[in-house]
């Protein structure tokens, strides 16, 4: 579990976050504070709002209402029209690792990692390239820097996705089911990288069904169901001694899919 300081100013503070698609309300008023070094594991069934919530935290989805306060301390009020510069403030402080990798197929591994820092952040190309190679070395992929995504396994592509996020130097890493598209034998390599990042103090929000990872690495587990937070707390509380019947039912079905 990563070291955290509860007294530190939050990297992200969310109050009453709502999101609707037409007449369907997917998020129904979510509150969340994330402090530096914290690892928050979001769990819940498909359709519970986890991915929509994650995407709302960096502006990939624009919430219908509520406020999100980035680390600069200035709230973004989604109950009023939101300026593009405010969405950019959210994106500038976070980086997302996607379920389906989302690497650019026409670019090499190194180009995928350096594209954002050079073109978006306008950092010097030589500096970015050196940092990218060092990050690829950390995950055992420096020798694949000139390869294209199609030449990599799913696990290797996801490790590149993690490196691409790290290269942006974000205050907050967002993981959307990072292992769900992987063959079972490849899951461990990706989770090992994520656990190392947590031990180094990276602040992370992870949507996951990997309960053992959540139990070992997370600072807090948040169970979403029907677009609301049903239960939250330390991993040993939520995953071992859940108090809400909906949490109990979800965990029972996750551990035993044949259980009625």
Name the features.
10 strands, Rossmann fold, alpha/beta, 9 helices, four-stranded antiparallel β-sheet, six-stranded mixed β-sheet, 260 residues
Look up the CATH topology: Rossmann fold
SS-based class: alpha/beta
Order of strands in the sheet with the most strands? 6-7-8-3-9-10
Shape-level CATH architecture: 3-Layer(aba) Sandwich
Question: How many helix segments?
Answer: 9
Q: Roughly what is the average pLDDT, rounded to an integer?
A: 93
Tell me the overall shape: globular
Helix content: 25-40%
Beta strands, count? 10
Q: Work out the strand percent.
A: 15-25%
What do these coordinates show?
The protein contains 9 helices and 10 strands. The chain is an alpha/beta fold and 260 residues long. The chain has a single domain (12-255), classed as Rossmann fold, CATH 3.40.50. The protein is globular.
SSE blueprint:
Blueprint: E1 12-21, E2 24-34, E3 39-43, H1 50-56, E4 65-70, E5 76-77, H2 84-93, E6 94-97, H3 109-120, H4 125-138, H5 154-166, E7 172-176, H6 184-199, E8 204-207, H7 211-217, E9 220-225, E10 228-233, H8 235-238, H9 245-255
Parallel strand pairs: 3-8, 3-9, 6-7, 7-8
Antiparallel strand pairs: 1-2, 1-4, 4-5, 9-10
Summarize the structure.
The protein is α/β, with parallel strands linked by helices and 260 residues long.
């Amino acid at each position: 579990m990563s070291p955290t300081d509860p007294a530190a100013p939050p990297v992200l503070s969310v109050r009453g976050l709502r999101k609707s698609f037409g007449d369907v309300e997917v998020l129904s008023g979510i509150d969340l504070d994330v402090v530096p070094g914290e690892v928050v594991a979001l769990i819940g069934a498909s359709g519970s709002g986890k991915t929509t919530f994650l995407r709302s935290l960096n502006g990939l989805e624009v919430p219908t209402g509520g406020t999100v306060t980035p680390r600069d301390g200035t709230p973004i009020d989604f109950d009023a029209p939101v300026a593009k510069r405010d969405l950019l403030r959210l994106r500038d402080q976070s980086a997302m690792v996607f379920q389906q990798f989302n690497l650019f197929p026409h670019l090499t591994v190194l180009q995928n990692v350096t594209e954002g820092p050079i073109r978006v952040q306008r950092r010097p190309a030589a500096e970015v390239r050196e940092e990218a190679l060092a990050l690829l070395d950390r995950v055992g992929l420096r020798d694949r820097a000139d390869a294209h995504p199609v030449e990599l396994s799913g696990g290797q592509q996801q490790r590149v996705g993690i490196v691409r996020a790290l290269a942006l130097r974000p205050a907050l890493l967002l993981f959307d089911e990072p292992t769900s598209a992987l063959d079972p034998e490849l899951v461990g390599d990706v989770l090992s990288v994520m656990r190392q990042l947590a031990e180094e103090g990276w602040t992370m929000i992870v949507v996951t069904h990997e309960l053992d990872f959540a139990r070992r690495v997370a600072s807090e587990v948040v169970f979403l169901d029907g677009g609301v937070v049903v239960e939250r707390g330390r991993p040993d509380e939520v995953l071992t001694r859940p108090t809400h019947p909906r949490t109990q039912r979800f965990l029972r079905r996750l551990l035993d899919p044949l259980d009625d």
